[in-house]
Each structure stands twice: as structure tokens, then as C-alpha cells.
Amino acid sequence: MVRRGIRVVVRCKRQQLTVEDGLYTHWIVDSFGGVRMTVISVVNMKGGVAKTTLATNLADTLVRRHQCKVLLVDLDPQFNATQCLISPEKYVKARSAGQPTIVNIFDDAPMAVSAVGGAKSQAPLVLKDIKPWKIKENFDLVPGDLELYRLEMGGGQGREQRLKRYLEAIGADEKYDFVIIDTPPTPSHWMMAALLASDGYIVPVKPEPLSRTGIDLLRGVVERFSQNYGHPIECIGVVLTIVETNTLVYREAVDFLDKNPVWAGKRYAASLPKRVKLARAQGNQALIFDLDDSDLKRGIAGIAKEFTERADG
Ligand SMILES: Nc1ncnc2c1ncn2[C@@H]1O[C@H](COP(=O)(O)OP(=O)(O)OP(=O)(O)O)[C@@H](O)[C@H]1O
Ligand SMILES: [Mg+2]
Question: Is pLDDT at 72 greater than 60 in this prediction?
Fold first, then answer.
């Protein structure tokens, strides 16, 4: 909708578009405020395939390159995504100051004691009062917490619905374009909570023979999940990570994905090259765009572009 003479703003993933008709400047309508944010889980049943690396860098690239407002949710008890973004000192300080973590979303029982910093939550927080941490402008984080390991999440208590309810609760005030959820490599309750909250999922795959088992397992888990919960969820892509393009395993992985009836058409053209310096940099909270490596930057930029096209499409 374009209205004459009225400054109407359309946030098309936060890019303002203008149309001149000689008399008036028309801004595109702010229809985005009424549209739900897109929630995507980064999943693979296999460990060490760069789920966390993809989640953190995709989120950062959507902010830097696509003017998106992004919330990253660290739903892995290992809380690696959090460690990629926040130094241990800052994390402990913030926890000691009582800043909430992912545990507060799931913990509806009073007196949970944190493993880090000794912080206590005396009573469960109201979902909408659990404020994400600000990493930088337009980039927020629901940080992970080792406490997830200890938090029991019995079935039938509706806890697996809490992340979904949380995102709905904060979505009313915080207009995120995308929520990216980093998940653990096991088919746990946390994985179910992530999928239930998500519109779609993206699968990082490390080119190696065992990765076939991982994604076949994943397919079965997602299918069962969809049936059990009646929640359709779309695969919005498979991304090859830790890639060495001149190897046989890489060519075999491409071949497998492109010819497999389930995954054909899902593979992104862009991939993430293998770089030891990326692994090292993560310990210092550096992201791909902080590094001097044009191949890595080109890789994540291409992935983010395909991601926005598929997520919007
Ligand atoms: N492009 C890359 N080049 C080299 N090393 C990488 C690359 N991407 C990720 N790594 C390294 O590979 C390891 C696994 O990456 P990451 O933690 O992102 O995987 P994950 O799938 O999230 O693992 P987990 O299943 O344990 O959660 C890490 O040490 C990371 O630094
Ligand atoms: Mg991880």
C-alpha cells in the first residue's frame, strides 16, 4: 500500500524503499509491524558440524549486511554460541548481576540456583520480563546456561512449549526480523522446544562420510516431531561447512545431497571454507566479519543472502 503525501514507512527487512512521483515521496508501508518474526533453528544430530559457527555468524551477517534485527537463542547446554559472543568475565559479571538466561525461560519452579556466579532466581520470571542481552545494535542474545544440564524437563508439563510462548510474548514489543536458535546435537527436549518455536530449520553439514548418517537421522526426528506435534516445519536449506573444495569427501557430499530425493534442491551454493583461524578466533569472541579472510566473508555473505531469499520466499 502506498499513500500519497503521507510519510508511510515500509520496513522490508528494515530497508526503506522510496518511490518518487514528482510531487510526493512515497515511503513503503509499515506492514512489517503486524507480521510475525521468522524463527529458524540450526539443527543437525551430528556434533561438531559448525551449527554454532553458522548460527552466530549468520545472525551477525543478517545484522551487518541485511539491516535485520536479530535475536539469537542459545539452546545448547554447552552454551558455545554464548561463549562465541561474550567473554567469560562479562558473562559471569552479568549472571552475578542477575541477568536472565535461557534457563529462566524453562524454569517455572522457584529457587533455581545457577552454576555460574551463584545467582539465584527466587521465583520464576514472567516470560515477557526475561530480557535478552544486547550484543550490539540490532543483535540480541538469549544466552545459554550450563544449568540446562540439571534442569529436568519432564514430558507433559508443557515446558517444551515455553520457548514458543516466550518468543510470542517478547515479539509484541521487540520487532525482530529473525530469531535464530542454536541447538544441541542430540534429539533432546531442548531440540523439541526449538522446533516447536520455529517456522523452519537450516542444516549445516560437514563434508565427511559420517555426515550422511547425521542428516538421515535428523530427517527421521523432524518427521516424527511434525507428526507428533502437528507442527509443520520447513527445511530452508542445507549448508556445507568446514569445506575443502579440492577434496573427494567434499565432492561426494555435494553429490549425495544433490541426488538424494529428500535434500535435492536444499543445498546452498555458498559454503563455509575450512579455516583454522576461525576456530581460534572464536575463543576471543571474533566473528567472520572481524577476520581478514575474504573467502570466509564471501561464504557467510552468500549463505545469508540465500537464507533471506528462502526464508522470505
Ligand atoms: N570453517 C571452519 N574452519 C575450521 N574450523 C571450524 C570452522 N567452523 C567451525 N570450526 C570449528 O569446528 C568446531 C565445531 O564447530 P561448532 O562448535 O560450530 O560445531 P557444532 O555443530 O555447533 O558443535 P556441537 O555439536 O558440539 O554443538 C569448533 O572448534 C569450531 O571452531
Ligand atoms: Mg554447537
Answer: yes
**Ligand closest to the CA atom of residue 82:** 2
Q: How far apart are CA 74 and CA 262, in angstroms?
A: 28
Residue 11 pLDDT > 50, yes or no? no
| pLDDT of 156 above 60 | no
The response to whether residue 6 sits with its C-beta less than 6 Å from ligand 1 reads no
- Is the pLDDT at 178 greater than 90, yes or no? yes
Expressed in angstroms and rounded, the spacing between residue 71 Cα and the centre of ligand 2 is 17
Residue 26: its pLDDT value, please?
29
Supply the residue whose CA is at minimum distance from atom 10 of ligand 1: 279
How many domains does the structure of the chain reveal?
2
State the pLDDT at residue 30. 33
Neighbours of ion ligand 2 (CB under 5 A): 51-52, 80
Q: Of ligand 1's atoms, which has the minimum distance to the CA of residue 184?
A: 27
pLDDT in tens, 88-115: 999 999 999 999 999 999 987 644 445 5
Whole-model pTM: value is 0.87
How many C-beta atoms surround the C-beta of residue 86 within 10 A?
Answer: 21
| Pair 52, 16 in one domain | no
Cβ of residue 159 lying under 6 Å from some atom of ligand 1: no
Evaluate: CB of 242 within 6 angstroms of ligand 1: yes
CATH number of the domain that residue 120 is part of = 3.40.50.300
Same domain? For 104 and 215 the reply is yes
